[in-house]
Amino acid sequence: MSHTAAEPLSAAASSKPPFDLTRLRGDFPVLERQVHGKALVYLDNAATSQTPQPVIDVFNDYYSRYNANIHRGLHTLADEATAAFEGTRESVRGFLNAPDARQVVFTRGTTEAINLVANSWGRANLAPGDEVLVSMLEHHSNIVPWQLLAREIGFTLRVIPVDDNGALDMAAYRTLLNERTRLVAVNHVSNAFGTVNPVADMAAAAHRAGALILVDGAQAVPHQPVDVQALDADFYAFSGHKVYGPTGVGVLYGKRELLEAMPPWQGGGEMIATVSFAGSTFAEVPHKFEAGTPAIAEVIALGRALEWVQSVGLAAIGQWEQTLLAHATSGLEEIDGMRILGTAPGKAGVLSFVVDGAHAQDIGLLIDQLGVAIRTGHHCAQPLLHHFGVEATCRASFAAYNTLEEVDTLIAALDRVIGMLR
Ligand code: PMP
């Protein structure tokens, strides 16, 4: 199904969506929900996006028609499940423009993908005296795995700073890179502030220094087309549930020669070639990294989600989210005592803010009573929030299905609850 309207794409500032928004919203049953007697306004998309009906339908179809374990079976159901599962690998390859589907490893999500790199590549390649660079903008899932490993191995974790807008300080980045740097682990888009990092430039600089780059794309793939070859990313990770797919599934893309040289990180069925008590040999990539029965239905549903997102068009989605972001930003700026955190040029549709005299948690709880779902807290980016002198922010984050009217509802709801709290 195509959601593209007949008219050509309008300018970024246009208030008209570049797709049939009413029809697109019709794909999401949850958007018809009421919360506390009010129409749901779902603006917590950076935490998880809602799921369109074609993706939901995969679960019913899979469990009613062809539920079977994959790869091992010779019977029809096993063949069908295997074909659908491996079909998603090819869909992800196309989605990321990876050279080969064998470079796509299925994981439980971004977190597990990063832990895979840390525990497999990291253990095999990092030594005391080496340096790994992360940025101030990282989600905890791209900090803690490196800290755990650094504690064991004794390499040094260094942090790329940000400026007052929440943009990475690229001059500092270039200075931090040196002959001891082995890896740069950085997000493509920050979940807390929406900053879009110049990962292609960062990759080029990392490579010149002889380092690899791992890109956490959890917040990028739902909002812009991503081409891992154009970025020259060595590793790229994302989660299904933030890109209109299910929870419990994610992806690690890696360059072929890196994946092939990396040792397995979990042992079990599926990841072996032969097993004897004298020792075992391992399967080829990507199966070497996929021990045990995976989340089969979830992987198949992820493939359907990527098809859905591509039928709408990621450039069009990104453009519409910019319209929503601009409208929301100007509305928020009218509110007395408002401070928006994260004002980097070209940022994505994530709006983090604090308000004088009203605690973020209280705002979140009260506007939920008005049907508006936003996130409040540290957004798993405590170092970043501490750097900006706050413990918590409110965060509204946009997806393809959000409307300008929903943004107006958010602003009106904020006005009302902030008035109550002061
Ligand atoms: N990185 C970023 C930038 C994120 O926003 C998130 C989720 N909030 C993660 C990593 C972790 O993703 P998951 O919990 O799906 O593994």
Secondary structure blueprint with pairings:
Layout: H1 21-25, E1 34-35, E2 38-39, E3 41-42, H2 53-66, H3 76-96, E4 104-107, H4 110-125, E5 131-135, H5 144-153, E6 156-160, H6 170-176, E7 181-187, H7 199-208, E8 212-216, H8 228-231, E9 235-239, E10 250-254, H9 256-261, E11 272-276, E12 279-282, H10 296-312, H11 314-333, E13 338-341, E14 350-355, H12 360-368, E15 372-373, E16 375-377, H13 382-387, E17 393-397, H14 404-421
Helix pairs in contact: 2-10, 3-10, 4-5, 11-14, 12-14
The structure holds 4'-deoxy-4'-aminopyridoxal-5'-phosphate.
Q: In the CATH scheme, what's the topology name of the largest domain?
A: Aspartate Aminotransferase, domain 2
Query: What is the global morphology?
Result: globular
Number of helices: 14
Assigned CATH architecture of the largest domain: 3-Layer(aba) Sandwich
**Helical proportion, percent range:** 25-40%
Q: How does the major sheet shape up?
A: 7 strands, mixed
Terminal-residue CA separation: 48 Å
Mean pLDDT: 96
C-alpha Rg (nearest Å): 22 Å
Low-confidence stretches: 4-12
Strand content: 15-25%
Domain module tally: 2
CATH class of the largest domain: Alpha Beta
Order the strands across the largest sheet as they lie in space.
4-10-9-8-7-5-6
- Structural class by helix and strand composition: alpha/beta
Annotation, overall tally of beta strands = 17
